[in-house]
Write the structure tokens for this entry.
Amino acid sequence: MTISLLYLLLQNCVPIPSSCIRTFMDFLVHDNIELRKHAEKSIAAICRLKKPPRIYIEKSLDEILHNVGQSIPTLVDGDCQPGDRHDNLWITID
């Protein structure tokens, strides 16, 4: 019961001590199946907390194609038209 509450107490604003992480890692190979299950959930929670946030940068199609060194695709009515192009040949199936 206390182990299940322990992994619920993990928060992003509170630093996780290395002894706590080491304890959860030791529980991953413990004989008791319940401890292993709780340790797995705890390690997953720690990994979610320590994952850096994604940074999204909005770029126009011109900026993307300029970095690749290709020309702008054909635009009809202001929309890009899909189709077989030489830059997509690597993902097509024969």
Summary: The CA atoms of residues 50 and 89 lie 38 Å apart. The mean pLDDT is 77. The chain has four helices and two strands.
